[in-house]
Amino acid sequence: MRKIIYILLFPLLWGCDSVLDVEPENAITFTNFFKTEEDFNAMIFQLEGFFRYKQFENEVMAFRGFLADQVNSSYYGDQRMLNQTSIINSFSNGWRNQYDLIYVANVILDNLYRAEGIPQDKLDFYAGQAYFVKGFVYFDLARKWGDAVITRNSTSMEVYNKSSMLDVLDEAIKNASEGYELLPKYEDMPLLGANTWVSKQYGCKGSCAALLAHLYAWKGSMIDLCGLEGDAKKCYEESIEWSTLLIEKKAGFYELERTSEEVCTKAMKGIGASQENILEFELDRFQTYPMAYFPGRVWITWPVKGTETPGSVVTKDFVIKAETVKNLYEDTDDRRDEYFFKLDSMSHDTMYKVNQGYAYVYKWRDVVYRNVSWSPTPQVAYIDVNYSYWRLADIYLLRAECYAKLGDDLAKADLNKIRNRAHATPYPAPGENDIQLAIFKERERELLLEGHRYYDIIRNGLEYIHTYMDGNYKTLDQQDVKEGALFLPIGDEAFNLNDLIRQNIYWSRFE
């Protein structure tokens, strides 16, 4: 019964307009709770549920960075062209979900002292989950908004001003480091009251290490890109150290899938099917209408969705030409024929009237159908995959990128580790002489449509932004970038009851 009470009580935590501008819940609300393992387990379950859907209700940056030949959506088109007037009025600018998550994590941390008779290792686990979520969310805030608010706890009634992007990243690093110290490796994760497999959405040493690897790589890149004070070289070295812990299995047992086919059938599927996956976000298959949040969902059509036809590809928000795919991958590269369905035969001249030369994404392949009253045939209920957020191939290529920025020849071995699996030509292939560019292009090929490319472009600097982004991105200078052009403007909701917050300099020009 107590667990049911928690589930009913927890929505009350979301009644405030924003953690930034109203009084928090009175701490006395929790006096009779947060005592038993059952209590804390219930709160962790709820935190994970909110983490899954609140964090990814809006992943606009993933859509900004997609490698696409045509975008059939004015909203996504505006984002990808950096059309300022449209973006400043966009619904995507609000950060309420992120601060709601930080608030809930703080509620857990602030009430650990109430525990009665709970073993220390379990308390460490609860705290570690909260620290991991906070670290992840602050990283997300820094990558999406740059400067952002850092809150102290769940009970403070003060009004907060923004902190600098580097301070927000340091707050993320602090929390992720705490999580790494407290949490076990994935294979040693405790069960939460049931004899079941533990989801890879939960924080563990591996997911904290991946977070820290990305945090330091991003921090070093921002120092270089924006001309900020700081030691970018040391940041790249830190990223390499955290990546190495994962690659050498010191932060948990992770290893690459053997083939590109297994990347599609295991890593992209998730659900514990892949040892390559470090962090997954669970699809809630118990909902009446399960929502998949992985960015690649917007590309999926026939033949994965059996209710659609070959001609449906032209109606998608994003499409890519078969010729673009052929130019991206060598003929020997397995990924061209695993990530896309029958690339050559479906792009034959005879098919042009049907698909206008567009390719069929086949990286995600599992669909569940449901009988519905309005159709004589079953309809697609949902795409039956988890959101594979970080996998080991990403970490190899991230380490390679950092090695390249340091001028270390070890970058080549990491790059070729991924190329060799796909049967692509090892670096240097004919005509290749820029290893940093080769690594960027390899991330583009390996992680295609997984949502990383926008951040990959930014990490590589202004020249890459001018080359691989469109519209107003091509005219940005370093001062524009330093003033917030690459980030989202702060949404109107954040200014309610908080007169300390100011819009980013770049976006204030368009208000």
Automatic annotation (TrEMBL):
It comes from the Bacteria. SUPFAM superfamilies: TPR-like. Its main location: membrane. Residues 20-186 form the SusD-like N-terminal domain. InterPro entries: SusD-like_N (IPR033985), SusD_RagB_dom (IPR012944), TPR-like_helical_dom_sf (IPR011990). GO terms for cellular component: cell outer membrane. Belongs to the SusD family. This is RagB/SusD family nutrient uptake outer membrane protein. It comes from Butyricimonas faecihominis.
